[in-house]
Design a protein that fits this description.
With 475 residues, this protein is of the alpha+beta class. 44% of the residues lie in helices and 28% in strands. The chain has helices at 10-22, 24-33, 38-61, 100-105, 130-140, 149-160, 169-177, 181-197, 202-214, 217-243, 321-328, 347-368, 374-393, 431-435, 462-473, and strands at residues 5-6, 64-68, 71-76, 82-87, 91-98, 107-114, 123-129, 164-166, 247-251, 254-259, 264-270, 274-281, 290-297, 309-317, 340-341, 395-399, 402-408, 412-418, 424-428, 438-446, 452-461. The strands form four sheets. A seven-stranded antiparallel beta sheet has the order 7-6-5-11-10-9-8. It has a seven-stranded antiparallel beta sheet with strand order 14-13-12-18-17-16-15. Helix 8 packs across helix 10 (217-243). The chain is globular, with a radius of gyration of 27 Å.
């Protein structure tokens, strides 16, 4: 790969889409301004599209890449020529992503991340042949470059013999039905409808509302249930499309994750970048015995706009976790034990924090609209129950060079960290906590983009907090 290469011509389309997306607001504003005057609107729109197409073609033509002297060398820029050299030794991960358009043409997008990667990937090749993308990944991840694609195929056959686990359709369906994404979709739908409302003629909106109200209270409830059911089905479909064919494979010092039905992603996670491994149990999945295994990864970028944590496996039974950890992240196996619980005298603080806003809401509702006092009372009871639940689930445990902490917001999270991965320890204590001999401790590790990820347990026994401080300081 020492000869300079250009991206696949399909990159012109991606460049055009990117330009239009970045100027979308300006285009819409201009369209509204000149909508009534077609003699001006059509020529200007056509002129801008031609200009954007020319820029996209020139951007593709001027973009070249090659691998030379253990470096990935990229040259780009239409008027101002830029060169970027990325040493193999600095590369942390190489991810392959194939969207719908990519898969039609047999292409992939190659994203290269280094330890200094910020909000964007260090380098991104928007469209290369899939076989070439795999060969490039193999060449940049090894000390000696591969000679041809046949050797890369041999490597892939060897990789196939490595430990691997794929999600079944049954588990994928359970993940969709218990994902809780219906709440997110409902919020987005409500926000979209509220924005859409201003474009609907008032007469049409009023007639529709009168038509719905005319059905009566029972019919409105039925429509609401049907709407929630549709949102729930959309949530299931979204989860299955995102995590379809989810497969994790371990190859020496790297984990390879492949997932997606429409957009196929191939993620690379070096084991040395894993800062912590966690087990998440949502309110819905916990009674059913299902969990999600995730990892906190150092470095990386936000190009995919996803959570800062990487899902190692979307759903599995709680008793399957230990075997999974032994296979894929053995450094975190054999340390799952029940943590030391929080002291009983800390419960009142958890209940207070969870319910204080609803106490105020209840008082305000009782003063101004007492006929609806039952609504905040129900919310208050639920928040107090959540506070008790959080207190019951909180705790930590030391196990040699590992610390296990467990906490709950809505989902229960058990996080396992190695001593050498912890960047900072902090103990906080206000006067009321001091009088109760309680304290709050916070552990920090390196997260996405090099920023800190923090895990805190509030109202822990002060003596245990000091014990953890001694363990962290090696005293």
């Amino acid at each position: 790969m020492s000869e300079a290469k250009r991206l696949h011509p399909a990159a012109i389309l991606f460049n055009l889409i990117k330009t239009v997306r970045e100027l979308f607001v300006v285009i819409i504003a201009g369209s509204i301004s000149f909508w009534d005057n077609w003699l001006i609107f059509v020529p200007i729109t056509a002129g801008f599209l031609i200009l954007f197409l020319i820029i996209a073609i020139l951007t593709w033509y001027r973009y070249t890449y090659r691998v030379e002297n253990n470096e990935l060398r990229i040259e780009y820029g239409i008027l101002i020529r830029k060169k970027r050299f990325i040493s193999k030794n600095r590369i942390q991960s190489i991810d392959l992503t194939s969207g719908v358009i990519h898969r039609i043409f047999g292409l992939t997008k190659v994203q290269i991340e280094t330890a200094g990667t910020g909000t964007d990937a260090e380098a991104s090749l928007s469209a290369v042949k899939l076989a070439e993308g795999k060969a490039l990944r193999q060449e940049l991840k090894t000390a000696e470059p591969t000679q041809n694609l046949d050797e890369n195929a041999v490597h892939e056959s060897e990789e196939a013999a490595k430990p691997s686990q794929t999600i079944s359709f049954k588990r994928l369906f359970i993940a969709g039905t218990t994902s809780g994404s219906v709440g997110v979709i409902f919020t987005l739908a409500a926000a979209g409808l509220s924005e859409l409302e201003q474009f609907i003629p008032e007469s049409a909106f009023n007639s529709t509302m009168n038509w719905v109200i005319g059905f009566g209270f029972v019919i409105m409830i039925v429509l609401a249930v049907v709407g929630l059911l549709l949102l729930w089905l959309l949530g299931i479909a979204g989860t299955m499309i995102k995590n379809g064919n989810f497969t994790i494979t371990k190859n020496d010092s790297d984990l390879f994750i492949t997932r997606g039905l429409l957009e196929k992603k191939q993620l690379t996670i070096p084991l040395r970048r894993i800062q912590a491994v966690g087990i998440q149990e949502s309110i819905i999945r916990q009674p059913l015995g299902y969990v999600t295994v995730f990892a906190e990864i150092a470095g990386g970028s936000m190009d995919d706009k996803e959570d800062f944590s990487s899902t190692l496996f979307p759903i599995m039974k709680r008793d399957e976790v230990e075997s999974f950890l032994k296979t894929f992240v053995p450094d975190y196996a054999g340390i799952q034990q029940e943590p030391t619980p929080l002291p009983k005298r800390a419960r009142k603080f958890y209940v207070f924090r969870a319910s204080i806003l609803f106490v105020i809401l209840t008082l305000a509702t009782g003063f101004w609209i007492p006929q609806f006092i039952w609504v905040p009372i129900l919310l208050l009871a639920g928040s107090m129950g959540l506070g008790i639940w959080r207190h019951m689930d909180g705790g930590f445990r030391l196990d040699g060079d590992h610390v296990i902490i467990r906490h709950r917001s809505f989902s229960r999270n058990t996080v396992m960290m190695h001593h050498k991965r912890i960047q900072a320890f902090e103990k906080k204590q206000h006067k009321i906590q001091g009088s109760q001999q309680l304290a709050t401790m916070r552990l920090s590790i390196i997260g996405t983009m090099g920023t800190g990820t923090h895990f805190a347990i509030k109202d822990l026994e002060e003596s245990l907090t000091d014990k953890l401080a001694d363990w962290y300081s090696r005293r």
